[in-house]
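ingest -> validate -> predict -> emit
validate: passed (alphabet ok, no gaps, 207 aa)
predict: started
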Amino acid sequence: MIATLSGKLLLRYLDRVVVDVGGVGYEVYLSVDGLSRAGDLHSETFLYIHTHVREDAIILYGFVEEEEKEMFLTLKTVSGIGPKLALAILSGMRVSDLSRAIGAGDIKLLTSLQGVGKRTAERLCVELKEKVGHLTSAPGEGSEPLVDIASQAGSVQADVLSALANLGYPDPVARQALVSVKKRVGSETYAQMTLEEMLKEGLRALA
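emit:
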């Protein structure tokens, strides 16, 4: 099984990258946060890897932080959560925030994540509450949850997310783009942006 990869970031897509290791390109699926932190194209990158073996395919899932891989593997132990849903969950919320939500039994917050219904959220809280507490302060993570970027219905950022969705961008990808915009321009400037300005900057972040 492949446990880590170290090489050049050759290609980047909306949900995966290709890492060139000694002339061999490995296709690796990452969370939205992982994609934003994997590095620039043609730069050296290091990823923790989970090798998922199926009858018809071998799929690699990558993680910038070991804690994210640990959370991914823990999520997969819950009935009804496979690797794709586990990665989607990690795309909607950072590890430390997810761990706190599970520990607090915050069903409302958990059901805001893509693919997570009430029953799945309840299973997460019941089955993982005692298993993820040590991940509440995972290193290398910011304090702003991705899910909070569109917390106010009717806000400019919510309208921008809707526009990006209409252009074909998945919700977690669009949210990460706005997080990147907010970090780059600063909270004060971000709060004063018009719809057109924020959409333009969001598309720039996605380019």
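The first strand starts at residue 4 and ends at 12.
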